[in-house]
Design brief:
alpha/beta, seven-stranded mixed β-sheet, four-stranded mixed β-sheet, 13 helices, globular
């Protein structure tokens, strides 16, 4: 029996069985569906993308995987070099893993050990955002702030080493004034908090965060697993405000195979680069640097430039604003749009009950959650396909 994610198995509705996928479409035995959420925001170029598929197939003829412990290979070397050249600043040191959640775990471990290696054992605390979501492993749940996902941690009581603040400048200033000397890092989903409710906030908050992290000697971590590769309307938010550690996943491989990377700057890496063996980062996911995933990721990065993704994202945002901004219904609390993300937040989660099947019957795959009806489409949608996604959203409220 398959144990499905985020579901009460006893009363779960049967999932749609996918028999094929091509471009932005998922196929069941009796339906063709526009995927409006890119398989949890990862399949940014659509399914069965030829260049990425070919890269995986070519690598598979040589070998699919070898461990990075004591071994290396050309795909991981080429991807590391590509990332170092492609990412901003001196974000040059790539530690690979197999999922975004694990990559965030690595970032948090790096931040703590950075100070331990420097003999600053008093920096035990992490500053994070209210409504944060960074994954479902234990440390990522601890820095998260979403009771709908992480309520199980309530059995431990309040974690004294995690401080959560809203995305408000006054709260930010007060947190650093009070806790700055005991923080090892400040971790954020920059500009767009995804699973926490598609919440959007201002770049000024991040710019001030960088200044305060510098002032108090705190590492700044950007979790761009969801926000990276154009989703916020920026290539990476890290292009505008430079973090010390950057976490990437999802779109890294164009959603074709699981892979993630935690990228550190020289300052962080240098704290581990030492003759003392105890200063090494003692972490090693079995499938880190997987050869197939590295080949896919390199092809995905090349596609990002070849397809002029940032122009596409700007166009998606333009159409979303034209189609959704100003759309009014008494059940709608707010419409929010940023880059490749559009969200309709309702007052009552019951308002969205049945929407998934409604959309399915109109040729769209969607998965609203809680009070949020949203789209994070593959970047390859035509204008007509994109308008259809938004039209189905509006039809739900107009149906009577």
């Amino acid at each position: 029996m398959i144990w499905y994610p985020y579901e009460q198995m006893k009363r779960m509705k049967a999932p749609y069985e996918i028999v094929d996928a091509e471009g932005p479409y998922l196929y069941t035995k009796d339906a063709k569906l526009l995927d409006s959420i890119s398989s949890w925001w990862s399949v940014i170029y659509g399914y069965h993308q030829p260049k990425i598929t070919e890269a995986i197939c070519q690598q598979a003829t040589k070998f699919s995987h070898v461990m990075l412990g004591g071994l290396t290979h050309k795909p991981v070397q080429e991807l590391s070099e590509k990332l170092a050249a492609w990412l901003p600043g001196d974000l040059d040191y790539c530690f690979f893993s197999d999922s975004g959640s694990v990559a965030v775990e690595v970032a948090l471990k790096m931040a703590l050990q950075y100070y331990v290696n420097r003999g600053e054992n008093s920096r035990k605390s992490v500053l994070a955002l209210e409504h944060a979501y960074h994954g479902d492993t234990f440390k990522t749940m601890a820095v998260g702030d979403d009771e709908d996902y992480h309520f199980v941690l309530q059995v431990y009581g309040k974690n004294p080493y995690i401080i959560h603040i809203p995305t408000e400048l006054d709260a930010l200033e007060k947190a650093f004034a009070r806790y700055g000397d005991e923080l090892n890092c400040f971790i954020v989903e920059p500009l767009l908090q995804g699973a926490g409710g598609m919440r959007m906030y201002d770049m000024a908050f991040l710019k001030r965060s960088r200044e305060l992290c510098d002032k108090y000697g705190v590492l700044l971590i950007f979790d761009e697993v969801a926000t990276g590769f154009g989703r916020t309307g920026n290539r990476f938010v890290a292009d505008v405000v430079l973090p010390d550690i950057l976490v990437l996943g999802k779109g890294l491989t164009g959603g074709h195979i699981g892979h993630a990377v935690t990228v550190a700057n020289k300052k962080v890496f240098s704290a581990f680069y030492d003759d003392a063996s105890e200063k090494a980062l003692m972490h090693g996911p079995t499938f880190m640097g997987n050869a197939l995933a590295c080949a896919a990721a390199k092809a995905s990065i090349e596609l990002f430039d070849e397809l002029d993704v940032m122009t596409r994202v700007a166009h998606i945002e333009e159409i979303a604003r034209r189609e959704l901004m100003g759309f009014i219904d008494s059940r709608i609390r707010e419409v929010r749009i940023m880059g490749g993300c559009a969200c309709i937040e309702v007052y009552d989660a019951k308002t969205l009950a049945g929407y998934q099947q409604f959309a399915y019957e109109r040729g769209v795959f969607a998965r609203p959650f809680l009070k949020y009806l949203y789209s994070m489409v593959p970047y390859i949608l035509t204008d007509d396909e994109l308008v259809h996604v938004f039209t189905v959203m509006k039809e739900w409220f107009r149906r009577g």
